[in-house]
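Q: what does this look like with thiamine diphosphate bound?
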Amino acid sequence: METVSAGSDPQILEDIQQRVLWLATRIVDAANHDRETGDGVKVGGHQASSASLVTVMTALYFAYLDAPDRVSVKPHASPVFHAIQYLLGNLDRSYLTTLRAFGGLQSYPSRTKDPDGVDFSTGSVGLGAAAPLFAAAARRYVDAHFGARPHSRFIALIGDAELDEGNIWEAVADPATDGLGNVMWIVDVNRQSLDRVVPGVRIAQWKQQFAGAGWHVVEAKYGRRLQAAFARPSGDCLRAWIDAMPNEHYQSLFGLDPAACRERFTDGAPDEVIEFCAGLPDDELARLVTDLAGHDMGALLDAFAACDAEKDRPSVLFAYTIKGWGLPIAGNPRNHSALLTTQQVDQLREQAGLTDGTEWDRLDPMTPAGQWAAARREHLARPLPTGGGAAIAVPDSTGLRAARPISTQEAFGRILVDLSRSESVAPYLVTTAPDVATSTNLAGFINRTGVFSPLPRRAWSEDPVLKWAEGPDGQHIELGISEMNLFLLLGQLGLAFDLSDQLLLPVGTVYDPFVLRGLDAFIYSVYSGARFVVAGTPSGVTLAPEGGAHQSTITASVGLELPNVTFIEPAYAVALDWLLCGALQSVATTPASPQAASAGPAPAGPGPAETGSYYFRLTTRGIDQQPFQAARDRLGDAILRRQVLAGGYRLIDAADAAAQGAPPVYLVGCGAVMPEVLAAAAELADEGIAATVVDVTSPDRLYRAWQRTLRQGVRTATAPSIPGALRSAFPDRAPVVTVHDAASHTMSWLGSALGVPAVSLGVDSFGQSGAVADLYRAHDLDSGSIVNAALAALSLR
Ligand SMILES: Cc1ncc(C[n+]2csc(CCOP(=O)(O)OP(=O)(O)O)c2C)c(N)n1
Ligand SMILES: [Mg+2]
């Protein structure tokens, strides 16, 4: 058989893109018209947004990409991606009729749920677009520390209206993304958003913004026909007229008959343009003025090559396209969610030379297009990962000692320093922070490991305390003040096991209130299956003097509720040591596949059974460590550590007093409030009440354990039991008071879990400046309020 090449025969890519357009359109059509859902809810899908990228994606997958390249596909082009994977032989035919069905192809590309090798999840516009930039930053780090991986290009396919999202510009502006020559963003310039034709001409401004940030900017704007017309005498006036035309005017040309198109195009045009157009028949003119390079395979491949040639900076390619290209809804301002009618689909099938019997076929292997697809399948096959770093041995603890009062934030810094001395762990640790590294106690780690920079940098001022040495060996990646960037970078460092064949132990820090500032990127990263540790610190009203704008309240709830995240808030330094080491042990356990990373609800429990990320909520309030030492002496490290990891343990056990008839109550504290809880327990003991203090180290693990047994009961129609983790912390039935420097709701479920009356104290209004005692008093977290709450709980029995 003769060898085929897309280069020697342009018809090959043309045939392939026609089939891609057909399949992408039909995949959405089948989801809406062939399947009975029975609930009357519209299924939906995006035929126009998909059509817009058919040429670009055909050019990429069938004439440009190499196996190590990674691509982020704009959410609404997922049908195009799946059509291409199907034609490449990477997706079973049975999936084509399952778009948006349970267990089928996801509406938007998903790393963890789609079956055909999605590189980056997308959906929340802007985030998936920026992800490859951070993946390239992560790769640059991996190459510098562990040796160069096979060269990858990191590509994002982005909707033009997606550029409105602020996180795009935060990513572009950050010095951590400077100079990444292996990045190419392709903007699908169809001039339409969801609601409308985007007014005016935005692109000139965007080009300047990218160029100002040091990016290489390319356009694929005019198709070959237009370029030829511009080259004719007085053709320049045509170009000037099109360039100056607002989006609304240009877009209104679509869907008109050729005569009306001429009239609209020349409406308000200078005489020379009208004259130029007069020399062309109506239908030729209509074809000419809508000839955009985003649907010109040759022009696109030239533009990709121009981006490749730029080795020292990222490239952005503005590809001018038509939303709904090749479909009857092309260019229609209302086409975002429009679906072709069954008749229109029938017509398209016929145009594609297919029948009901052949409509789902792959390209005929006897045709040049079919042979080329087979060749590309081979070309794009990825080698198996080598599992770099898969055997990182994280110890159970660093042996941290804390004799004097210490805060969890300070202990966190010391634990990291200690781990940076461990030969088996240190090479894999990488920290990052959005301009809060020193104020979140990463300075000790940075002093030992340095700050990452692709090239060595001269330090202009010597700081006797902080050695901010920058170079390729550095293990801290400093970001500008962008919490979005923090979580996007953590996400990509946390996916390096898959995207860069190197397992890392990423640790980020952020002021806890600003976790919410990066929350969508946090969700994005853990939804994608990334594995990392983040510390929100300082947190709560315990950050008393800083006032309401810097005090976090709802973050604990967020941490508890986020899937794929284990939320941890220890009070004591040694507990943090055990928990942090356990979290890193878990992160060091590479999931077998991206799908495995977030398969189903994670089982409750410590360490390796969890497959997601870790969120530690810490504080700067130093507290006396003696009570923890006493519990250690009482229980021994083995039992105490197990309970600390499981989510809670009895810090003070009043079982003896209860046995002698004192009314029992549980005081349940989480985090920095422990001294007040202990003081309240002592006051209650004086009044003859048996107050057992439970230190909850992870409301999340306890909640999950409870939910797991409940769900088990629900699913099997059996009476649920109280899970072991709760039973060992709460062996008896007694009223509970929960105390947390966070929204009271975070632990209020404990009453239901234990089947007892509960009073939940927490912070349910904004804070203000003051001393810790002032703020605790204002929010009923002082020992007197806790005593009163215990009496109230007892009265509710
Ligand atoms: C963060 C976020 N906000 C809103 C949406 C809803 N949404 C989906 S697509 C879209 C418009 C996208 O326009 P564009 O990026 O130009 O894509 P096109 O469909 O034109 O290719 C909007 C607002 C979303 N998916 N994510
Ligand atoms: Mg658009």
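Confidence is low (pLDDT under 50) at residues 599-608. The two ends are 85 Å apart (CA to CA).
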